């Protein structure tokens, strides 16, 4: 087809009348987000889409069904499950009395909710284990710092109704695959904290060990010694490292069943080549955990392990009965992956994500009539599934063509006042710069042809 060069004249820009001097504006206080809360703007959205798409895809692949849970629950749910003496319940919950004076809490985590939902909806009658996943916001009044927010997103996996160690391995595997497939190198830190009985005995031994060194403990660790002694093991306070080295280890105290189950979990992980290392000090901060507990950290280009966990989880075999559910449920295993932390790790590693949809067609207009027609043309292209971009807010052709270039559009449609009168549109091939004038009613068909050439 012959290609004609066409020149489109820009609309005359009318000169603006001089603005009158305005009275001095009152200083208005600009609103901002709460500390620890953040907006996710369109440019970062590409990371979010990639991570959440991956989470959804893996959940489907491994047969976890999506649940959408409320953001608000009765405060007592978390007190009874996460535990009254834990940091989360003691210091970090956004709790308030609602209009009926009921104590409610913005969820700090979702495992307790899943357990509630399992019981409330009689899921014991479904084939076990019931495998579910969620993606959503959690709220913790934590001290904000890099990678720690007061509102953050988690992708969580839960498998309720089985105490088979293979379930532990599968949940860990899914989290690891998600991160690997997003381009991260990761390491699983894993431990077993045994059953409640074992833990009770072990905790007493731990307390008597640390009591000898009470004077060497920080104020915070002294508090932990009385309130939640297991937390001494993952304390990062000054001086604790040396003391921990000689502390009794829970792995040496495990009962035969816990030990055998833990060995099986490790064997399953070996089988699917999940990188892990034992961490005898990993206990995690929530009361409901038993047996397997784990965290996942990133490994950087130099092979160094990160200190911030990307995911964490473990078994919670007694949570369902503890909340009044039927005990035949037979154990449960879960994990939560921090979405912001995975995104931060991807950025840190320089993993690129495609920044925008690939644009096929750019629509450029000059003048009000062209703009109006443009709205309808845009609709036609969209209905055909052709990815079309526009800049209705821009007036100058130069600026619009620059934008088309930036978006790497294959063709640009140009509609000026003359074309509106003639009932035509210009199709410009962005690579060659060649242009042709086509009848407006044929623009979709001919543009499609140009795109396929
Ligand atoms: P947890 O629910 O404490 O077991 O945490 C599971 C995962 O959620 C962690 O490994 C983090 O990736 C993420 N996470 C927990 N707390 C925060 C927070 N305050 N800000 C951002 N991510 C968090």
Polypeptide structure, described:
This protein has 453 residues and is of the alpha+beta class. It folds into 2 domains: 42-194 and 254-349, 2-Layer Sandwich (BirA Bifunctional Protein, domain 2); 361-452, Anticodon-binding domain (Rossmann fold), CATH 3.40.50. The chain is 36% helix and 21% strand. The protein contains 15 helices and 16 strands. The strands form 3 sheets. An 8-stranded mixed β-sheet has the order 1-5-6-11-10-9-7-8, with helices on both faces. A 5-stranded mixed β-sheet has the order 13-12-14-15-16, sandwiched between helices. Strands 2-4-3 form a 3-stranded antiparallel β-sheet. Helix 1 runs antiparallel to helix 5. It is elongated, with a radius of gyration of 30 Å. Adenosine monophosphate (AMP) is lined by residues 109, 140, 142, 147-149, 152, 154, 309-312, 336, 338, 340-341. Homodimer.
- Category by helix and strand content: alpha+beta
CATH superfamily of the largest domain: Bira Bifunctional Protein, Domain 2
CATH architectural group of the largest domain: 2-Layer Sandwich
Query: What's the number of structural domains?
Result: 2
Classify the fold: give the CATH topology of the largest domain.
BirA Bifunctional Protein, domain 2
Q: Give the CA-CA distance, first to last residue.
A: 12 Å
Tell me the total number of β-strands: 16
Major sheet: 8 strands, mixed
The CATH class label of the largest domain is Alpha Beta
**Whole-angstrom Rg:** 30 Å
User: What integer is the average pLDDT?
Assistant: 92
Number of helices: 15
Helix content class: 25-40%
Strand content: 15-25%
> If strands are numbered along the chain, what order do they take across the biggest sheet?
1-5-6-11-10-9-7-8
Which residues sit in consecutive blocks of at least 5 with pLDDT less than 50? Answer: 1-15
Shape: elongated
Ligand identities: adenosine monophosphate
């Amino acid at each position: 087809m012959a290609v004609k060069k066409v020149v489109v004249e820009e609309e005359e820009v009318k000169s603006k009348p001089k603005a009158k001097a305005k009275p001095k504006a009152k200083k208005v206080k600009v609103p901002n987000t709460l500390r620890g809360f953040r907006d996710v703007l369109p440019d970062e959205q590409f990371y979010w889409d990639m991570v959440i798409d991956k989470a959804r895809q893996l959940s489907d692949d491994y047969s976890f069904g999506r649940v959408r849970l409320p953001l608000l629950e009765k405060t007592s749910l978390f007190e009874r499950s996460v535990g009254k003496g834990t940091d989360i319940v003691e210091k970090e919950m956004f709790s308030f009395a609602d209009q009926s004076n009921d104590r409610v809490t913005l969820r700090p985590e979702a495992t307790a909710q899943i357990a509630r939902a399992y019981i409330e909806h009689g899921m014991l009658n479904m084939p076990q284990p019931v495998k579910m996943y969620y993606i959503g916001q959690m709220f913790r009044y934590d001290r904000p710092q890099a990678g720690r927010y007061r509102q953050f997103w988690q992708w969580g996996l839960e498998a309720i109704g089985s105490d088979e160690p293979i379930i532990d391995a599968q949940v860990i595997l899914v989290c690891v695959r998600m991160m690997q497939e997003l381009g991260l190198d990761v390491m699983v830190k894993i431990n077993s904290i045994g059953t409640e009985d074992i833990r009770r005995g072990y905790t007493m031994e731990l307390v008597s060990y640390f009591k000898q060194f009470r004077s060497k403990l920080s104020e915070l660790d002294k508090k932990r010694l009385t309130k939640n002694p297991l937390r001494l093991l993952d304390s990062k306070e000054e001086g604790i490292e040396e003391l921990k080295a000689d502390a009794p280890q829970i792995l040496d105290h495990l009962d035969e069943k816990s030990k055998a189950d833990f060995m099986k979990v490790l064997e399953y992980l070996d089988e699917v080549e999940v990188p892990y290392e034992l961490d005898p000090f990993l206990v995690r901060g929530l009361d409901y955990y038993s047996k397997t507990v784990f965290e996942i950290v990133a490994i950087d280009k130099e092979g160094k392990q990160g200190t911030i966990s990307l995911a964490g989880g473990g078994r919670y075999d007694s949570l369902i009965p503890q909340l009044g559910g039927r005990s035949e449920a037979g154990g449960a295993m879960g994990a939560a992956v921090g979405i912001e932390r995975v995104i931060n790790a991807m950025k840190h590693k320089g993993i690129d994500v495609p920044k925008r949809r690939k644009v096929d067609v750019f629509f450029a207009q000059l003048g009000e009539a062209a703009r109006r027609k443009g709205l309808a043309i845009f609709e036609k292209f969209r209905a055909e599934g052709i990815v079309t971009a526009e800049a209705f807010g821009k007036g100058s052709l130069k600026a619009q063509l620059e934008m088309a270039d930036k978006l790497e559009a294959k063709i640009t449609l140009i509609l000026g006042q003359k074309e509106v009168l003639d009932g035509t549109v210009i199709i410009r091939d962005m690579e060659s710069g060649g242009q042709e004038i086509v009848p407006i009613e044929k623009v979709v068909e001919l543009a499609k042809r140009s795109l396929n050439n």
